[in-house]
Write a structure and sequence with these properties.
Blueprint lengths: L1 H9 L30 E6 L6 H14 L2 E16 L5 E4 L6 E8 L10 H8 L3 E4 H7 L6 E5 L5 E10 L9 E4 H6 L5 E8 L4 H10 L6 E4 L12 H8 L4 E3 L5 E3 L1 H7 E6 L3 E6 L3 H13 L8 H7 L25 E3 L8 H9 L2 E3 L10 E4 L2 H9 L1
Parallel strand pairs: 4-8, 5-7
Antiparallel strand pairs: 1-9, 1-10, 2-3, 2-4, 2-6, 2-9, 5-8, 6-7, 11-12, 13-14, 15-17, 16-17
C-alpha cells in the first residue's frame, strides 16, 4: 500500500472522499455498502459538478481494458410540486409558479443490489422513489404517497414512494430513483463512477491516468482521509436552517418564497465588512469570527471594498461555477459568505473561521477560495459560552 500511495501522489490525482458535498459539489456517496460491493475493492471517480462525457467515455475504456466493472451515479435537483396520499388527497402543495427543491440520485437498476437490500432493490426496479428519513419528516411523506415532480426538463412526473430509509443509507441525498425514472426527470448526467474489482492494483491507476485526459478529478480508494472542509448535505441544511419554495427567474437566479425570506433574512452592520445581509442564525458565529480577527490584529487582511462590490452573503441563486445539476447555492439560505473575492485569505483567517463553525471552499475539488460556509452551530455556542 505504501507504493500505491506514492504512485497516486505522483499522478497528482486528489485522493479525498468528502464527508459531505459542498456548495455545488455532489452530496456524499455513502460508504456503507450492502449486499455485494463490500466484498470488492472499490475506486470512485468524480469531478466538480457532473462528469464530462469525454471523461465518462475514458472511464469506460479504462474499465474495458482492465476487465473490471463500473456503474455511474446520476444527480440533479428537481422540483416538488405536490404530494398526494393513498386516498388521493393532496397533503402538500406549492404556491403558483413555486416549487420545493429535492436533491435526487439516480442509479442503474441492475446494480442496485450492490448498494441496497433486496427489498429496496426490488422497489427501485419497480421505478418507485426511495426517500430519506429527514426528507420524509420535512414534507410529511408516507410510503405509498405519490410525489408530483418537475424535472430538469420541466416535464411533470408522478412517482410512488416505495420506502423511507435512513439518510446515511441513501448517501445523504434526499431521494434515490432508477436511471429510467431519472431520465424522465431530466437527470441525464452522472456525478460519479464506481469501479469495482476483486483486487485493485497499481494497474488500475495506471490505466485510469493513461486514459483520462482531464486531471482535476477526485479519485478515492480505501482509507483516504475526509476533507476537513466538508459541509452539510441539503437535508441537514433544511433541517437546521429551514426550507423554502422557489420560483425560477433566469436559470441561475431564483426567487425565494417571501414568507421564509422575511422570517429568516436580515441586514446588520458587522465589524470590518460593514453592512451585510445574511440568515439571522449567521450573526453569532460571523460576529465571533470577525471579532477574533480584530483581537488578533488581522483586520487589515479582510477587505470591505471587495465584500461590498463583488462578495456577499444572501444571494438567492443556483450554483453557477460549474454544472451542478441545478443545486441551490448555500447563499440562498444566507449561510455562506464571500469576503475577499480577489485577494485570498491568510492561513490564520481560515483557521479562525474554521474554529467558529465555517467550512472554507479553498480545499474543495473545484476550489472556491473566497467562500466560507456555516456548517457547525455548536462551535459558536461553545466559544460564546466559554
Amino acid at each position: 500500500m505504501k507504493k500505491l500511495g506514492l504512485f497516486l501522489i505522483a499522478f497528482i490525482i486528489v485522493v479525498q472522499p468528502p464527508a459531505f458535498g459542498h456548495d455545488g459539489e455532489n452530496e456524499i456517496e455513502n460508504k456503507k455498502l450492502f449486499n455485494g460491493i463490500e466484498n470488492y475493492d472499490v475506486i470512485t471517480i468524480s469531478q466538480p459538478g457532473v462528469l464530462y462525457y469525454s471523461v465518462t467515455d475514458q472511464i469506460l475504456e479504462s474499465v474495458k481494458n482492465l476487465d473490471s466493472n463500473v456503474t455511474f451515479i446520476g444527480r440533479a435537483n428537481v422540483g416538488l410540486e405536490k404530494i398526494i396520499d393513498i386516498n388521493n388527497v393532496e397533503t402538500l402543495s406549492t404556491n403558483p409558479d413555486y416549487l420545493y427543491s429535492l436533491s435526487v440520485k439516480s442509479i442503474e437498476s441492475k446494480y442496485a443490489d450492490l448498494f441496497y437490500t433486496d427489498e429496496i432493490t426490488k422497489l427501485i426496479k419497480e421505478n418507485k422513489i426511495i426517500i430519506s428519513k429527514l426528507t420524509a419528516e420535512q414534507y410529511s411523506v408516507n410510503i405509498g404517497d405519490k410525489l408530483v415532480l418537475v424535472g430538469m426538463n420541466e416535464i411533470i412526473t408522478e412517482v410512488e414512494v416505495g420506502e423511507i430509509i435512513p439518510d446515511s443509507e441513501i448517501g445523504w441525498f434526499e431521494a434515490v430513483v432508477s436511471k429510467d425514472v431519472g431520465y424522465e426527470l431530466g437527470i441525464n448526467r452522472n456525478i460519479q463512477a464506481i469501479i469495482w474489482d476483486s483486487k485493485v492494483t497499481e494497474n488500475h491507476f495506471v490505466e485510469i491516468y493513461k486514459n483520462i485526459k482531464y486531471k482535476q478529478l477526485r479519485v478515492t480508494f480505501r482509507d483516504a482521509k475526509p476533507n476537513k472542509n466538508w459541509v452539510l448535505p441539503t437535508a441537514l441544511v433544511k433541517n437546521y436552517f429551514g426550507d423554502f419554495q422557489i420560483k425560477e427567474k433566469d436559470g441561475t437566479w431564483i426567487i425565494v418564497e417571501p414568507a421564509w425570506r422575511n422570517e429568516n433574512i436580515e441586514r446588520k452592520e458587522m465589524p470590518i465588512i460593514g453592512r451585510a445581509t445574511c440568515n439571522k442564525i449567521m450573526w453569532k458565529p460571523l460576529l465571533g469570527a470577525l471579532n477574533q480577527v480584530i483581537d488578533e490584529g488581522l483586520e487589515n487582511t479582510l477587505y470591505k471594498e471587495e465584500f461590498q462590490k463583488s462578495g456577499g452573503c444572501y444571494a438567492p441563486r443556483r450554483i453557477n461555477r460549474f454544472n451542478a445539476g441545478g443545486s441551490i447555492s448555500r447563499h440562498a439560505w444566507g449561510i455562506a459568505i464571500d469576503i475577499n473575492t480577489k485577494s485570498g485569505y491568510p492561513p490564520r483567517i481560515v483557521e479562525i473561521f474554521n474554529s467558529w463553525g465555517f467550512a472554507w471552499g479553498g480545499t474543495w475539488t473545484s476550489p472556491d477560495e473566497m467562500h466560507f460556509e456555516l456548517r457547525d452551530l455548536s462551535a459558536s455556542i461553545s466559544k460564546s459560552s466559554g
